[in-house]
Amino acid sequence: MPPRDKGPVMEPLVITAALVGAETSREQTPYVPVSPEEIAADAVKCAKAGASMVHLHVRNPDGSPSQSPDLFKKTVLLIRKESDIIVQVSTGGAVGMGVDERCGGLEADPDMATLSCGTVNFGDDVFINSWPLIKDIASRLRQRNITPEIEAFDAGHLDTAARLAKEGLLDLPAHIDLVVGVAGGISAGERQIEFLVGSLPKGCTWTVAGVGRHQLPMAYYAVERGGHARVGLEDNIYLSKGVLAEGSSPLVAAVAEHARRLGRPLATPAQARQILRVKRGLKAAA
Ligand code: KMH
Ligand code: ZN
Predict the structure, then answer these.
(1) pLDDT tens-digit map of 36-92
(2) Where are the domains of the chain?
(3) May I ask the CATH architecture of the domain 15-285?
(4) 211 three-class SS
(5) Contact, 150 vs 175, CB < 8 A?
(6) Does residue 282 surpass a pLDDT of 80?
(7) Is the pTM of this model over 0.70?
(8) Which contiguous run of DSSP H or E holds residue 229?
(9) Ligand 2 centre from 86 Cα, in Å?
(10) Among 66, 127, 180, which is best to mutate for testing ligand 1, by the most ligand atoms less than 8 A from CB?
């Protein structure tokens, strides 16, 4: 997609690399990292390519999804030895996990964690986020002083975030990830993004995570609109039609290149902490 005309000066771009996920398999792509060492190495490559945040899941040695506190701790430690990139853990985990298991990554003392704000059909499955479960995870994040990233898979999830704030469980403005293109959630398109952005609680920052073939076009659109972008093998395994991305860093590099063409600077991890209102400062390398 060709870059659009340069607009006004925009704030530095935060690129999030979603490295692993719970669903992407080695059968689909040999490039999905599995061990803590592989995940950390990919995180460092993504940081070098221009990402200022990683969104993390972990895997058992056989490749199946895990939310093991020990695997998260090991992975986060390895990343922090090499990089000051923001570490955001998933509290979504995999479909079917209970809330305690989903919150396993919080034991690794991350900078941020996701907070999904509604139930959504997820392909053939259902990703369940009842109101009591959302409140439970929000309370756990608050107790641990971990900054949430709201995950909105559909428009009503933004209303749920506002309701959380009303009940004192979420500070606004917050950072919100607009996930578009999940089969069962809001579809991927510029019109959909415009509606979601127009529906955000006042002052919220936003990222777009496009799923599948929509990933790069939606990321480019977000860059042009002054939002932020999430890419990586969790959501999409292809760099272009039929060409597998060799890890998440080529996808990060594509978004970074698009920003460069538009004259939009990339956020450093320190700038990203400011932009996303991350409560915790830089972690000392272990
Ligand atoms: N794996 C999905 C069911 C998150 O990380 O917070 C949920 C997910 C969301 O990936
Ligand atoms: Zn995730």
Answers:
(1) 999 999 999 999 999 999 999 999 999 999 999 999 999 999 999 999 999 999 999
(2) 15-285
(3) Alpha-Beta Barrel (3.20)
(4) coil
(5) yes
(6) no
(7) yes
(8) strand 228-231
(9) 15
(10) 127
Tell me phi and psi for residue 91, to 5 degrees: -110, 10
- Report whether pLDDT(283) > 80: no
Residue nearest ligand 1's atom 1 by CA? 94
Helix extents (H) in the chain: 36-49, 69-82, 99-102, 131-143, 156-166, 190-198, 215-225, 249-262, 269-275
- State yes or no: pLDDT of 7 exceeds 60: no
Residue environment code for 28-50, b if the CB has 16+ CB neighbours within 10 A, otherwise e: eeebbbbbbebbbbbbbbbbebb
| C-beta 95 within 6 A of ligand 1 | yes
User: Which protein residue has the closest C-alpha to ligand 1 atom 7?
Assistant: 92
Confidence at 284, pLDDT banded by 50, 70, 90: very low
What are the tokens at 158? Answer: 């933004």
pLDDT of residue 8: 57
Q: Is there an atom of ligand 1 within 6 Å of 177 CB?
A: no
Could you tell me if the CB of 148 is within 6 A of ligand 1?
no
